[in-house]
Specification:
Largest sheet: 4 strands, antiparallel
Distance between the termini: 10 Å
Number of helices: 12
Radius of gyration: 19 Å
Order of helices and strands: HEEHEEHHEHHHHHEHEHHE
Strand order of the largest sheet: 1-2-4-3
CATH superfamily of the largest domain: NADH Oxidase
Low-confidence stretches: 107-111
Shape: globular
CATH architecture of the largest domain: 3-Layer(aba) Sandwich
Structural class: alpha+beta
Number of strands: 8
């Protein structure tokens, strides 16, 4: 049986902290050789209701590749990434070959610490403007990154559009049921599964968090009270921020989506480094008519793939739960 060297197991442990929709962690890793991996997609973890075209799935595999490459560089390895997928439904996404790097990268904190500290903060942020040096740091990551202040015309469109799109999505029984399967309503499920959305990840405070783990069930997510509370919270989130970071792709090809996912992860890591809270809100990219209107409303010549709520929070969220790498290594 093929096995990975301990150093590469450590790299994969860090890579597993990559972001994904509903924290599904949809990756599998097949060991082709001691230093060659096949990064695969697990169809059982696809979000077929909110992401039927696997657009967001491919973006998440771009983020995974970026985290993997940075974790490898921090550990003294070079990761040579080659795209394998030729269609959105392909399960084989990346082939990765590792080789010793000429020198250890200083881009990441020792041991990949910054890579494991990234987290989505879902509480409302302060509404004061994002500092100019922080905006410039984000814009400097890639030409496909832009920034929209909340009080601009485009920012107000996003606040209203995201809230309305979220309301429409939450009232859709199929999409809400899909979300419910990824909500973790018991401590035992959190420990056993290591994936999905916990009360802590959603920014739910005590005493509601106590009820979440003792009273709530997956069926609770389908109740009118739960849905209405989620809708109100999301509107407060959209209104409570400094503005929005946007990430565009050159087109909708697989290569472009994977590259955009890599840029997204670099943006999230930079915000983590700067102490800027961030929360990716995708509903306006998932629901009609906003998905068809957003490019024109934001005056973007290229398709927008990410809308990230940004600002300053009293407390940044802690990283979400993660699966053991033994759960996804084949």
């Amino acid at each position: 049986m093929l096995s990975l060297p301990p150093a590469l197991r450590d790299v994969l442990t860090v890579a597993a902290h990559s972001p994904s929709g509903h924290n599904t962690q949809p990756w599998k890793v097949k060991v082709l050789a001691a230093d060659v991996l096949l990064i695969r997609s697990d169809p059982q973890r696809w979000l077929t209701a909110v992401d039927p075209a696997n657009r967001e799935l491919l973006l998440s595999f771009g983020a995974f590749a970026e985290t993997l490459a940075q974790a490898a560089a921090a550990a003294g390895w070079h990761a040579d990434l080659a795209i394998v997928a030729t269609a959105p439904t392909d399960t084989d996404i990346w082939r990765v070959a590792f080789s010793p790097a000429a020198e250890r990268s200083a881009a990441s904190a020792p041991g990949g610490a910054i890579l494991t500290q990234r987290a989505t903060t879902r509480t409302p942020f302060a509404t004061r403007a994002l500092e100019a040096q922080h905006v410039q740091a984000l814009l400097g990551i890639a030409r496909t990154v832009s920034y929209v202040p909340r009080e601009s015309v485009e920012g107000r469109w996003l606040v209203d559009g995201m809230a309305a799109a979220f309301r429409q999505q939450t009232l859709d029984d199929q999409k809400q049921a899909e979300l419910a399967t990824w909500l973790r309503f018991s401590r035992s499920a959190v420990k056993r599964r290591g994936d999905g959305l916990t009360a802590e990840a959603l920014g739910i405070a005590f005493p509601v968090r106590l009820a979440w783990y003792t009273v709530f069930r997956p069926s609770t997510a389908l109740s009118s009270a739960f849905r209405n509370s989620s809708i109100n919270n999301t509107r407060a989130q959209a209104q409570g921020c400094a503005g929005f970071a946007l990430i565009r792709s050159h087109d909708a090809s697989i290569a472009a989506l994977l590259e955009t996912g890599r840029v997204y992860e670099r943006v999230c890591l930079k915000m983590t480094e700067l102490g800027v809270a961030h929360h990716t809100m995708s509903q306006a990219l998932e629901e009609a008519p906003w998905a068809q209107e957003i490019q024109g409303a934001l005056q973007s010549a290229d398709p927008i793939q990410f809308v990230i709520r940004v600002g300053y929070a009293r407390k940044l969220a802690r990283p979400s739960i993660r699966r053991s790498i033994d759960d996804f290594i084949e």
